[in-house]
Specification:
Layout: H1 3-27, E1 31-36, H2 38-43, H3 51-54, E2 65-69, H4 70-99, H5 108-116, H6 121-136, E3 139-141, H7 149-157, H8 173-188, E4 192-196, H9 200-208, E5 212-215, H10 218-226, H11 231-244, H12 251-262, E6 267-273, E7 277-292, E8 302-307, E9 310-332, E10 339-362, E11 370-376, E12 380-387
Parallel strand pairs: 1-2, 1-4, 2-3, 4-5, 6-12
Antiparallel strand pairs: 7-9, 8-9, 9-10, 10-11
C-alpha cells in the first residue's frame, strides 16, 4: 500500500469518525446549531442565493439555529465584492472590444448602467449578504465581547489551533477569531455547534473544543440535522427503491434536460499542461450523457430539507461531456523578454465528472411522491484536456515565417 493510500484511508477514517460523533451529539440533543466556514462558500462559488445555500432558509422557521461569525460573513462579503468587480470589469472590457468594430447608440458607461445598475460592487455584496442572513433567519456572532484577546495571542505565540506552524501563520488570525467567537457563543448559550469547514487548522481546533464539532460537507451536516427525524431516512430509502425499479420512467431524461440547460452554471476550470506558456478560453460544453452515481443499482439520496410535506434530497450524478477549449501559446523572447505568440489550437476533450443535483418531492409519504423540481447545484469542477500544443496543420512551425 502506497503512502498516499495510507493517508487517504486515514483521512476517510477521521471523516467517518467526525460524522459519527456529530450524529450522536445531534440525536442526544447536545447540538442545536449549525455554522459554516467561509471556505465552504468559496468552494460553492459564493452563490448564496441558490443551490444548497438556498435550503438554509429552512432554519428560519425551525428550532435548529443557524449562526455565522462576523469574521466568516465578512470574508464572504469580500469574496462576493471581488467577484462582482471582476465581472463588471470583464463586461467593460468586452464592450471596448466590440466598440472597435461597432458603434453604440449610447455611451458604454450608460450601457453598463442599464445592464447591471449603478450599485457599486461593495453595495451589491452588502445587499446579497444581508438578504441571505434575513432569509435564513441566521444569527451573527460579533467578535467583540466573545473573543478574549489574551487567549487569542497565547494561541498565536504557542502555535495552537487554528494557527499552523508555517509562514502563513499571521494570515490565520481571522480563523482564530472566528473559532474563538463561535466557542464563546456556544458556551454562553449552553449548546454545541456543527461547524462545516475544510480548513485543517479549524478542524484541529474543533477536535480540542468542548462545544464545536467539525464536518467537511454542508450536505452531510444538513443530512445529519434531518436525521433527527428518522422518518426522512425511510422516505429516502423508499424513493431510491422506486427510482431503481423504474417507477419514474422519464427521470433520466428530465435530469439530462436540466443539466444540459444549466451546464454553464457550473464553475468550470480548465486542467491542461503544455511545454509553453498558454492562455485558455473554454468555448463550448455539450452534454453526452447523465446518469445517477449508483451503489448496488440504487442512487444515493441525502435529505437536506423536509418541511410541510415537501422533501428535498441531494444526489450525485455522473455526467459525460464534450468540451472544447481554445488555447493560445507563447514563449518568452530571450532578448526583449516579451511574450511572443507561437500559435494556437482548439482542443476537444470528452470527460466524465460528478455533479450534485437537488430533487424536490411533494407528498413524500404517498405511494408515488410527486417529483416537482430538479435543480443542478452550481459548483466548481475541472475538465481534463491533457497535454496540449499548437496546431500548425500542414504548415512547418520551423519555417522563417514562424
Amino acid at each position: 500500500m502506497t503512502s498516499n493510500s495510507v493517508q487517504n484511508d486515514k483521512a476517510a477514517a477521521e471523516k467517518a469518525a467526525r460524522l459519527e460523533l456529530a450524529k450522536s451529539k445531534l440525536l442526544d440533543g447536545s447540538i442545536t446549531a449549525l455554522s459554516i466556514d467561509a471556505c465552504i462558500f468559496t468552494e460553492n462559488g459564493n452563490r448564496i442565493d441558490e443551490g444548497i445555500f438556498k435550503h438554509l432558509e429552512q432554519f428560519k422557521e425551525g428550532d435548529f439555529r443557524l449562526v455565522f461569525t462576523e469574521v466568516s460573513l465578512s470574508e464572504v462579503h469580500a469574496h462576493i465584492k471581488k467577484e462582482a468587480e471582476e465581472a463588471k470589469n470583464k463586461l467593460v472590457s468586452s464592450l471596448r472590444s466590440v466598440g472597435k468594430h461597432w458603434s453604440f447608440a449610447d455611451s458604454k458607461e450608460n450601457i453598463v448602467d442599464k445592464l447591471i445598475g449603478t450599485d457599486s460592487p461593495k453595495d451589491i455584496a452588502s445587499k446579497k449578504v444581508a438578504n441571505f442572513v434575513r432569509r435564513c433567519g441566521a444569527e451573527i456572532i460579533e467578535a467583540t465581547g466573545t473573543v478574549d484577546l489574551k487567549v487569542l495571542l497565547k494561541r498565536y505565540f504557542d502555535t495552537q489551533p487554528p494557527f499552523e506552524n508555517s509562514a502563513e501563520k499571521k494570515s490565520e488570525f481571522p480563523d482564530a477569531i472566528a473559532m474563538l467567537s463561535l466557542d464563546g457563543w456556544a458556551e454562553k448559550n449552553a449548546t454545541s455547534v456543527i461547524f462545516v469547514t475544510k480548513d485543517k487548522g479549524c478542524k484541529r481546533y474543533c477536535a480540542e473544543s468542548k462545544f464545536i464539532y467539525s464536518l467537511d460537507s454542508l450536505s452531510d451536516a444538513l443530512s445529519l440535522i434531518q436525521e433527527r427525524d428518522n422518518h426522512c431516512i425511510q422516505l429516502c430509502r423508499a424513493i431510491e427503491t422506486k427510482i431503481a425499479e423504474g417507477v419514474y420512467s422519464d427521470l433520466d431524461q428530465r435530469i439530462a434536460g436540466i443539466v444540459g440547460d444549466n451546464i454553464w452554471r457550473i464553475d468550470w476550470e480548465v486542467d491542461a499542461s503544455a511545454a509553453y506558456y498558454f492562455d485558455e478560453e473554454l468555448n463550448d460544453i455539450e452534454l453526452v450523457n447523465a446518469s445517477f452515481d449508483c451503489v448496488d443499482g440504487k442512487p444515493s439520496l441525502r435529505a437536506v430539507d423536509y418541511c410541510k410535506d415537501v422533501l428535498v434530497v441531494q444526489s450525485t450524478i455522473e455526467v459525460e461531456i464534450d468540451a472544447t477549449c481554445d488555447f493560445s501559446f507563447a514563449v518568452k523572447d530571450g532578448i526583449d523578454h516579451d511574450m511572443v505568440n507561437i500559435g494556437s489550437a482548439s482542443v476537444t476533450s470528452r470527460d466524465t465528472v460528478k455533479l450534485d443535483i437537488l430533487l424536490t418531492f411533494e407528498n413524500p409519504n404517498d405511494d408515488l411522491p410527486d417529483l416537482s423540481e430538479i435543480e443542478l447545484v452550481p459548483e466548481r469542477r475541472s475538465i481534463d484536456f491533457g497535454c496540449v500544443e499548437p496546431d500548425y496543420g500542414d504548415e512547418d512551425p520551423s519555417s522563417e515565417y514562424y
